[in-house]
């Protein structure tokens, strides 16, 4: 009898069947390299045992060389013994084999008859034998194969591995005797009656095959369940790892956004510094040009003075010479010596008497006066970017107006120094929005006080309207309110100065289109507040008639009164000039408390009283 072998590509080095550590399994517990027929039901025709990581390779070698080699029968029977070797690769690693299925069957009949199926789980160390000849294999083959495994032979051949295999084949291929059949039937079912023809019934054979397949399916299901659970755990670990990576990326994105904001602020600061540097370079260039012009102008006068000094000693030398010639008793000194002494004495004082030490300063002052730009306007507006949409014609009608953009208080002071204002009547100042982003409130208050002091000194008759800072939509809002309190206190220190608090803007909502600039709604309220301060009112009077000039207001004492010519009491003085040029005063109260136009007799009495007071002050 010979064996027919159907195998896949078997690794004869047996390296892909070796695992460093077996996986955990939830399959039914079986003994270690021993057979226990009571673990599974008798109808399952199944038995299993475990082995170790080191010995499983020896079991696989013995199974391969014992059942996949050729066997010659001395009787010369033409019946074939067939073995099929199938492998299943691991899901996560294609270089490893996870499961080996070895099927033993007989050929020569109408259909192949499966004897036993040996399943080797390489990843768990479980070896399972099932089929109708399972009991015969366990009684005859198990101990023989175990002895071969215990020998631990590295190089094994088919002849060595197939020792005593012929006895097993004969036992499973011979026709069972009557006593044997009775024993098997009694073992499986003690109450059943003997039926010699029962084993040859095809229905029984099919039921055995079905039971074998069901057992295989159960085993495969358990293995599949274990693989699914393992894959599920690995997926959970991967998801947790990905979640951690996502959190790290979120933190990194947040840090990068913060860094981007810082870089934007630094870029804005660098832009401002560059702008200031250009302004300084321009100032230095103008100063160098002015210095060169002064040098050219101061070179000419000394040359003319030296020539005059040289002429003066010559005239003085002639007079002593004539007097000395009238006295013959005295010898005449040499002309050269006389000239030197005369020049020395005359030059000693003429150099200091004729030269004026204030000449360069006077020239410089003249040059500075010439370089100032003259501005002739009744109202001067110094405002930052929040006043870019101000229409001077609507804000100050019937008045010549000049709008000068002043982003900071310091730049407003520079504008005041560079220009010469001719008879200004009102200064409207709104600065500080950009200053609080870089300077403390005390410094800004000092700069504003210096600006108001300079305006008051140069133009004491002018009125000053100081606009406080507007609301903001950032963390500088409280700082702006603190500065407003200091600005209101500063405004009270100077005459003719009124502060605009913009309280209605702080009470309004939706007035900004960014953190510090007004939108259309906020700008209308802002312009209305400035116009009310310009006219000396808080709100418009209901159904009031338009007036061709600003409402008159009385100056608070001790502010200087306007220049009004004296008139005789019998003459009617003209008060229109006073109404047009007198500064306005903010009224605190309802419209009923505001100044109303008076009749002609009242105007005449007020004019006479003012003329009398003006005369007393003079």
TrEMBL record:
Origin: domain of life: Eukaryota
Bias (Low complexity) ranges: 313-329
Entry-linked Gene3D superfamilies: SGNH hydrolase (3.40.50.1110)
Record field: compositional bias (Pro residues): 547-563
Keyword Ion transport: no
Keywords assigned: Coiled coil
Coiled-coil residues: 232-297
InterPro entries: SGNH_hydro_sf (IPR036514)
Record's compositionally biased regions (Polar residues): 571-593
Region (Disordered): 300-335, 538-599
Keyword Coiled coil: yes
Name of the protein in its database record: Uncharacterized protein
């Amino acid at each position: 009898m010979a064996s027919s072998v159907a195998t896949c590509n078997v690794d004869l080095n047996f390296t892909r069947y070796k695992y460093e550590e077996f996986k955990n399994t939830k399959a039914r517990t079986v003994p270690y390299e021993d057979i226990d027929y009571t673990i599974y039901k008798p109808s399952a025709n199944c038995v299993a045992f475990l082995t170790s990581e080191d010995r499983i390779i020896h079991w696989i070698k013995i199974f391969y060389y014992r059942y996949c080699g050729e066997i010659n029968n001395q009787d010369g029977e033409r019946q074939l013994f067939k073995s099929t070797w199938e492998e299943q690769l691991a899901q996560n690693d294609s270089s490893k084999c996870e499961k080996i299925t070895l099927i033993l069957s007989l050929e020569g009949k109408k259909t192949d008859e499966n004897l036993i199926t040996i399943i080797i789980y390489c990843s768990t160390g479980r070896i399972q034998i099932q089929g109708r000849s399972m009991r015969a294999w366990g009684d005859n083959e198990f101990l023989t194969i175990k002895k071969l495994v215990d020998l631990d032979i590295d190089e094994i051949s088919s002849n060595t591995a197939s020792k005593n295999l012929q006895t097993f084949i004969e036992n499973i291929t011979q026709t069972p005797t009557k006593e044997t059949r009775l024993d098997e039937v009694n073992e499986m079912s003690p109450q059943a009656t003997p039926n010699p023809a029962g084993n040859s019934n095809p229905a029984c054979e099919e039921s055995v095959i079905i039971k074998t397949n069901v057992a295989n399916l159960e085993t495969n299901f358990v293995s599949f369940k274990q693989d699914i659970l393992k894959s599920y755990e690995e997926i959970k670990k991967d998801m947790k790892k990905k979640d951690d990576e996502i959190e790290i990326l979120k933190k990194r994105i947040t840090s990068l956004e913060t860094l981007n904001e810082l870089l934007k602020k630094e870029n804005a600061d660098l832009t401002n510094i560059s702008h200031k540097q250009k302004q300084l370079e321009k100032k230095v260039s103008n100063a160098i040009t002015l210095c060169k012009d002064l040098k050219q102008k101061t070179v000419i006068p000394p040359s003319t003075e030296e020539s005059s000094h040289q002429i003066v000693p010559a005239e003085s030398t002639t007079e002593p010479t004539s007097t000395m010639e009238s006295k013959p008793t005295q010898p005449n000194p040499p002309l050269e010596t006389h000239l030197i002494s005369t020049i020395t004495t005359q030059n000693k004082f003429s150099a200091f008497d004729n030269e004026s030490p204030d000449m360069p300063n006077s020239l410089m002052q003249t040059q500075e006066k010439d370089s100032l730009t003259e501005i002739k306007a009744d109202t001067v507006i110094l405002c930052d970017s929040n006043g870019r949409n101000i229409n001077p014609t609507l804000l100050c009608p019937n008045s010549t107006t000049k709008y000068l953009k002043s982003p900071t208080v310091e730049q407003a002071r520079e504008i005041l120094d560079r220009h010469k204002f001719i008879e200004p009547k009102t200064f409207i100042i709104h600065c500080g929005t950009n200053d609080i982003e870089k300077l403390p409130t005390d410094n800004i208050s000092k700069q504003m006080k210096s600006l108001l002091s300079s305006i008051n000194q140069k133009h004491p008759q002018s009125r000053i309207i100081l606009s406080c800072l507007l609301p903001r939509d950032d963390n500088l809002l409280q700082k702006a309110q603190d500065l407003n309190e200091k600005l209101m206190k500063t405004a009270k220190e100077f005459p003719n100065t009124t502060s605009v608090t913009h309280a209605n803007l702080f009470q309004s909502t939706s007035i900004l289109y960014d953190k510090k600039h007004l939108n259309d709604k906020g700008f209308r309220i802002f312009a209305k507040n400035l116009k009310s301060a310009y006219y000396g009112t808080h709100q418009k009077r209901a159904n009031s008639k338009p007036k061709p000039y600003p409402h008159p207001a009385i100056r608070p004492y001790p502010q200087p009164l306007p220049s009004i010519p004296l008139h005789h009491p019998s003459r009617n003085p003209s008060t229109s000039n006073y109404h047009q040029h007198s500064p306005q005063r903010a009224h605190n109260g309802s419209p009923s408390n505001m100044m109303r136009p008076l009749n002609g007799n009242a105007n005449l009495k007020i004019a006479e009283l003012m003329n009398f007071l003006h005369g007393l002050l003079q």
